[in-house]
Design goal:
Layout lengths: L14 H26 L2 H15 L1 H38 L17 H10 L11 H21 L20 H9 L2 H11 L3 H32 L4 H6 L11 H15 L10 H4 L9 H26 L11 H20 L7 H29 L3
Helix pairs in contact: 1-2, 1-3, 3-12, 3-13, 4-12, 5-6, 5-7, 5-12, 7-8, 8-10, 8-14, 10-12, 10-14, 12-13
Length: 387
């Protein structure tokens, strides 16, 4: 037997169907009251209530509201994971540096609520715009930086049934992997805009460093992703994960996997690739003039991009949600993403910061040839018919 959506009973319901079912029930509930008011009010009011009820119950408007609710659920789940990532960063950093606290807020659960307390503290601080700054660019840069980073998370599914779907049959965002990479590449331009518009020599140097760093590491990263597209034959995350059912791409494309991880660390701008905001040289780099919640949004977005980087590595190279059947697909995906982030943090406190010229040479002279070699390996495997 089948249900109303055409799926067999017992088959997993995707996120679109779940959100659509909730909204359909709510609209029916409200419309019953709405039509009742239309029947018991004078005719000039009754026609209005009935017309509004018919308008709300139409499929087109339910579809639009379902997409909004679906996006809201994905963003909430992502932000909860971002708070977990910040908590892991603080706890792991404390253990590596032999420092155990203090975490006054939520100490009974390991200080997890301290992140919320710090965010509230930044939220009530005064926001100052420098007198000689370009105010449009200064205000617009954090909005684009945060918005583009959240769009990355909207396209990465946690499982085949938990992702942004555009229809009831579970059809996701077309070419979602390409879209995620495009959103990932927007950040350098917003950082350069923030550094230039602040009208400060330190912020300008930080912005120029970020642009040079992203240019050096974006090309090897895209070449590594191109090898994944070549083997999987798909630009969609679901198709890429399905292609890794027998073997993860991290095994035959090990060189590309390592290069991809290094490029991700550079994209996220954490140590040893935090030269655009190096405190020892540039005060706070391109964020020097930002304070209050704007600085908090920049700090939060760094964790958002770290989570997105771990999710990208999981979906492209580590089999996504492929794992033991006893563990839900979404949990299995998050376990892999958390492990990737833990490796990032381990490298952060284990590798020293390098000079800007050394970092650029490493990207152009080491990672780029390795990325090309990895692409040749993928082409060879594809020609041999292995995938």
């Amino acid at each position: 037997s089948t249900c109303a959506s055409g799926r067999t009973i017992g088959e997993a319901m995707n996120l679109y169907e779940f959100c659509y079912g909730i909204l359909h029930w709510l609209v029916d509930l409200v419309n019953n009251l709405w039509y009742w008011l239309g029947d018991h009010l004078p005719w000039w009011f009754g026609d209005f209530f009935n017309a509004v009820g018919d308008f709300a119950a139409s499929y087109g408007h339910l579809h639009f509201m379902t997409l909004l609710l679906e996006s809201l659920v994905i963003i909430i789940v992502a932000l909860v994971n971002v708070l977990n990532f910040l908590w892991i960063f603080r706890k792991l950093s404390g253990r590596i540096l032999d420092f155990y606290g203090p975490y006054y807020v939520g100490y009974r659960i390991g200080g997890w609520l301290q992140n919320l307390a710090d965010g509230m503290k930044l939220f009530i601080k005064e926001i100052i715009v420098p007198a000689k700054a370009d105010k449009v660019g200064f205000v617009l840069a954090p909005v684009i930086f945060v918005g583009s980073s959240l769009l990355i998370l909207a396209t990465i599914p946690l499982s085949e049934n938990f992702g942004l779907s555009t229809s009831r049959d579970g059809t996701g965002v077309p070419a979602s992997a390409l879209f995620a990479l495009a959103m990932f590449a927007i950040a350098p331009f917003t950082i350069l805009l923030a550094g230039w518009s602040s009208n400060n020599k330190y912020t300008l140097i930080g912005g120029m460093r970020s642009a040079a760093q992203m240019m050096s590491y974006e090309i090897p990263l895209i070449l590594c992703v191109a090898s994944v597209f070549l083997l999987s034959g798909s630009f969609d995350f679901v198709g890429i994960v399905d292609a890794q059912h027998d073997v993860w791409f991290a095994i035959p494309l090990f060189i590309g996997f390592v290069v991809f991880l290094v490029c991700l660390i550079a994209e996220v701008e954490i140590i040893p690739f935090d030269l655009p905001e190096a405190e020892a040289e540039l005060v706070e780099g391109w964020t020097t003039e930002y304070g209050g919640m704007r600085f908090g949004l920049f700090y939060m977005t760094t964790a958002v991009r770290s989570y997105a980087g771990g999710a990208l590595a999981t979906a492209l190279f580590l089999g996504g949600w492929q794992g033991p059947a006893i563990i839900p697909d979404e949990i299995w995906f998050l376990i892999k993403a958390y492990i990737v982030y833990t490796v990032f943090m381990w490298l952060t406190w284990s590798v020293p910061r390098v000079r800007i010229d050394q970092m650029l040479k490493f990207g152009w002279r080491r990672l780029l040839p390795l990325a090309v070699l990895n692409l040749l390996i993928a082409a060879t495997l594809k020609t041999m018919g292995w995938f």
